[in-house]
Write a structure and sequence with these properties.
With 342 residues, the protein is of the alpha/beta class. The chain is built from 13 helices and ten strands. The chain has a single domain, classed as Alpha/Beta hydrolase fold, catalytic domain (Rossmann fold). The chain has an eight-stranded mixed beta sheet with strand order 3-4-6-5-7-8-9-10, with helices on both faces. It has a two-stranded antiparallel ribbon with strand order 1-2. The longest helix is centred in the C-terminal third of the chain and has 17 residues. It is globular, with a radius of gyration of 18 Å.
Length: 342
């Protein structure tokens, strides 16, 4: 999810309320917004970036478009981050596709005037539908990364006729059972990192949303998320530049609420319902993923038309570490079954 695991304040609060299993939400990461002109895989200048706001009732969603071709709505991870961590690398797809990014309600540049308790799983799904309607799209491809895959799957289950293709990139758990397995793996394989993160999460600076403390937390958290150290450093630098105290605190509150509606629920399980989807689906993962491989495998096995592609020498950010094979897999998805778009 944009997934990230954390042994932090969420666990402390949840344990006090529920006295249940340690909660580690899978968060996503943050970057700087790319400039108005992008560079394609060939190195040539690409189309200009277009920015707008979509009114959704109680909020205005910040939208960033780039490219032309079949439309793809890109759903960032977190749940407490925004689209910026995916840029500019995800823009490589703009040489063939019309990418529509937006900051989810209450996060990033869609946070103004939004109260965290107004953000729910239902409102997030409704916002995807409003974005589709705003751009007058009969059907659309959904690309979810990390936590964004949960939103993509939930939307496809509710509106299957409005989705032409699904791209499930480095998915977060689609069931409580897979979430528990994720938690178990972290405790067994990365106990030292869990201890370090917990120590930072208990500091006053971290609780107050201090950008330095939050960056230190994620520097530890994302240590096992990459196959290449240079990409890890790139992400951490972006995160540090993007964090603000107010933004961090509001996004945390939103994350806490969404966690309660998904991974923290004992009966959360999308897998049985996914068997009803009849959509061309690509599930992308990496051989250095810090989420158990079983999470991606279970989703791929549940959706009848799904193809699972595991990228070599890639971690949780396949679009960053393996851009060429990722692009090729997405191209193949569209080549297999093309749907008209308006």
């Amino acid at each position: 999810m944009v997934v990230s695991l954390r042994v932090d304040r969420l666990w402390v609060r949840w344990k006090m309320r529920k006295k249940s299993l340690l909660i580690i939400p899978l968060s996503l990461f943050v970057t700087c917004i790319a400039p108005g002109i992008l560079v394609s895989r060939s190195g040539a200048q690409g189309p200009a970036v277009r920015e707008s706001h979509v009114p959704v009732g109680g909020a205005n969603l910040f939208v960033r478009e780039v490219g032309t071709g079949p439309p793809i709505i890109v759903l960032h991870g977190g749940p407490d981050f925004d689209q910026s961590y995916m840029l500019p690398e995800m823009d490589r797809l703009a040489d063939r596709y019309h990418l529509i990014y937006y900051d989810q309600r209450g996060r990033g540049k869609s946070a103004k005037g939004v109260k965290p308790d107004e953000v729910t799983l239902a409102s997030d799904i409704s916002d995807i539908e409003k974005v589709r309607q705003y751009f007058h799209l009969d059907t659309v491809t959904l690309l979810g990364h990390s936590w964004g895959t949960v939103l993509a799957l939930e939307y496809a289950l509710k509106y299957p006729g409005r989705v032409s293709h699904l791209i499930v990139m480095n998915p977060g758990p689609a069931s409580r059972e897979d979430y528990v397995e994720l938690r178990k793996e972290w405790l067994e394989k990365r106990a030292d990192l869990v201890t370090q993160k917990k120590a930072i999460a208990e500091t006053q600076a971290y609780k107050e949303g201090d950008p330095e403390a939050v960056t230190a937390y994620y520097r530890i958290h994302f240590t096992p998320a990459f196959a290449r150290k240079e990409n890890y450093e790139k992400l951490i630098t972006r995160m540090h530049a993007d964090f603000t105290k107010d933004g961090v605190l509001k996004a945390r509150a939103v994350e806490d609420r969404l966690m309660q509606e998904t991974w923290a629920k004992a009966d959360f399980d999308l897998l049985p319902q996914l068997k009803t989807l009849k959509l061309p689906t690509l599930v992308l993962s990496g051989d250095h993923e810090f989420i158990p491989a079983s999470s991606a495998e279970h989703i791929a096995n549940a959706i009848p038309n799904a193809h699972l592609a595991t990228m070599k020498d890639c971690g949780h950010f396949t679009y960053m570490e393996c851009p060429v094979p990722v692009h090729s897999e997405i191209d193949a998805l569209f080549a297999e079954r093309s749907h008209p778009h308006q």
